[in-house]
Amino acid sequence: MKNWYHSWRAAVRIARRDAVRSKGRSFLVLAMIALPILGVSAADLTLRSAELSTEQALERTLGAADARMSDAQSGGVPVYQSPDANNYAPVGNFDDKPWPEGETDVRKVLPAGAKSLEDSAGSAKLRTAHGLLNAEIRELKASDPLAAGIMTLVSGRFPTGPAEVAATTHFLETSGLSVGSKLAARGLDREYTITGSYELPDALKSDQVNALPGALLDPLDKALAADDLPSTETSTTYLVSVPGGFTWNMVKQINTKGVTVASRAVQLAPPADADVPLYQQEDWAKSYGDSGAADVAALAAVGTVVGLAMLEICLLAGPAFAVGARRSRRQLGLVGANGGDRRHIRAIVLAGGLVIGFAAAVVGTILGLALTFALRPLLEDYMGQRFGSFDIRPLELLGIGLLAVLTGLLAAIVPAVTASRQSVLASLTGRRGVRRSSRVLPVVGLIAVLLGAAIALYGSLLSDQSILVAAGSAIAELGVVAMTPALVGLFGRTGRWLPLSPRLALRDAVRNRGRTAPAVAAVLAAVAGTVAVATYAASRDAQSEASYEARLPHGAVSLIVNEAGGRDVPQARAAVQKNLQVDVRADVDRAVVGNVNCAMYSRDKGCGSYEVVVPKANQCPLWSTGNEDPAEKFTKAQRRAFSKDWRCKESSVMSYTDGGVLVADEKLLNVLGIDDPAAAKALSEGKVVSFDKRNLDKKGSIGIRLITDTEAADKAREEGKEAPGAVKTFSAHQVADSTNAYGVGMILPPAAAKAAGIATAPFGAYYSTDRLPSSEQRQKLSGELDRTGASIELHIEEGYTSENSIVLLALAVFAGLITIGAAGIATGLAQADAEADLKTLAAVGAPPRVRRTLSGFQCGVVAAMGVVLGSAAGVLPAIGLRLTEEREERAWYEQALDEGFGGNLTPPDVPIVVPWETLGALLIAVPLGAAVLAALVTRSRGALSRREAT
Fold first, then answer.
1. How confident is the model at residue 873, as a pLDDT?
2. Which of 1, 177, 273, 627 could form a disulfide linkage to 181, CB 3.0–4.6 angstroms apart?
3. Beta strand 746-748 pairing with 661-663
4. Which of 229, 187, 132 is nearest to 564 (CA)?
5. For helices 467-482 and 849-899, what crossing angle results, to 10°?
6. pLDDT score, position 289
7. In this predicted model, which residue has the larger pLDDT, 568 or 432?
């Protein structure tokens, strides 16, 4: 043991000295190992710091209170809840009856002797320096001790009077206001003074205003109600504190009143699943994300990524250690001449990996900690929440550092074994021994390739486990890596057709496979991953483009304002008209039943709805009109037949209103690109233009049912009956079936709506443009629309736009950098080996450029071999994954047809597309660039010296 310690101590000292002497090579290897360690340690520290403990999370939601009590909106019906109160359900079976609804007064359920603090929240449009901004209004006495920790005061103070508010820092930045400014809500003739700014630790990007209870929401709701406008939709919870806290039994007791409780004590010490009634329900199941299988899959994915990253670093760093061993061969020979055996030689080279791996671990970890600490504000802003603490976990960082040491040792193993096999005489005289390549390794590699291909093929064609495709591809790629020395030898046979310099470079690469193969394998691994991802991304991109359905004609624009009453529609219409090159503008309204200020789909008092009456003969037999599933009445063959029935065809283009009904004139036809004079004439005559022939009855008319009692309509539908309501009938013109109306079901002329007594509200506009807007025009338009404060949906039809171009470019650049780095390392090793040959060439009169061109071709040869092999190996996993997806989509499509849901489906098309641009850049540009770069950085003249005696 003592001899082992002293020998390794000496080896480490020698390795440290060599590392200091060869600063450039040492820095290169250290950077390759330290950079991943830096990233992983920084990511670990960031995730751990952002991961809140239960106590920290509760402080941000409960403050100093013991619990938060909320109305379950079940009308007092008892509920079951999860321990964290995020999930709850009413007690009983409600499959065949309406879900219980209604409010419960939480204050009446408060335990005796409890202290409570009201916490209400709603939303409204607030006037800012730029216009209007939709923001959350929260009424909570933030200065109360119970609320400590929920809001963090940044400047000023929290409100203390009814005419004061505080605002989040993000709201002040967005609105252009500041502490001391006046703030008003649209619809309320009252101003408030901003007394301070604060932030929500869990939502840094939240636009919120804080007021005292009753100071803002209640007056604003009264003012909105007076104008028949939608309310702020206020919801109220209560922060509660009781002596001893809320136990799980207390929580279950309060649940019987229709109230949920988020208890601090329960979440700090949650009950067993068997004691949670909600978890015992038949229809309750934990999601896959909460299961152990998900954790195992995540660990397997992380392990695979870490393993492949270590392999890539070892392949890149291995030749660098071989360079050091080759340049230190005389020193290693002296060790052998003075009594050292092979294990001492191996120890010296391995100690080089140990020293650099340890240095990389220290440097990478320290830089990761420092970088995370320095960038903490930026990281918190990016994540949108404050760290719970700067959580440093020494054991995790130690494990990450050990990965660096292990990577350094693994990278030095092959050079250590190779150096130890050199004879003392060859090392002292500078001779290079000739050793035949292993014949076993290529055979093992070939078996791995065949086995991996078989596993990937099985996973893609027969199994439902896509992980098999990835595993098989990884095994096949490792097999190709093992076969690299033999494949390099096959490349050597092409040298007979090459000129002098490339022939010498190729011959040198083939004869010295010990340094060529690792570099080629490193390039192969990087390029294979790049080609696999690029092929998969290009294939998905082609599939998305083929399935893309335009929402409008190319260049057309739609403006939809989801605002009750449509007060902001005229301003929004004018903004688009002003900022875009508009050719035709078609204003559209929506039909309204009841109060014209009701929001679409609103169920408030005085708000109704409408539906297009589809004649019974035109209804799809698979449509459901009650609780029963009509599809159960038919066989699979009949359901498949119905998928081709015109009555069951559905459009996949989004419709903005019920039945796609828009109130407009013939200008809308022009914008939609519909050239139908008869349709334009029908609109001018006050007739409805229909784009769905199912809506027409035998007389060529269309009926629209006006529903004033939405609750009675819901009850009737549940019983399979028609909803009660008056039906307005309109004469209609049906356009050709082949017409693409882009989601519009029918156009109702304003005159016809008025004559039928149907109220309308401004809804938006459609525009045809001369050309697509520039980035500057888009920005100006976006700014003006934002200033309206309305919820606006603007769509500019540009056709399919690929989002993968930047991804493919980044992949190509990444693979190019890895290729150039690996080829450069191999070239440096080749120059160290071939220094004697270069001196001989110079001595016999070779021109100086031969040295430069030979270096360039040596680098280019390694890059070319790695790129060619990597491109071939990378296609396999992409093909396997695409075949798996095709089988899954085909199975889903067949199941949809069997169940009667195939009316708007098309047979799946899963193409496999090779990204020729990326492959071209890798196969041509990268090797050529590597060769040119190596030639440029190589000196034309070397030191001419006398050949040593041999």
1. 80
2. 177
3. parallel
4. 229
5. 160
6. 43
7. 568
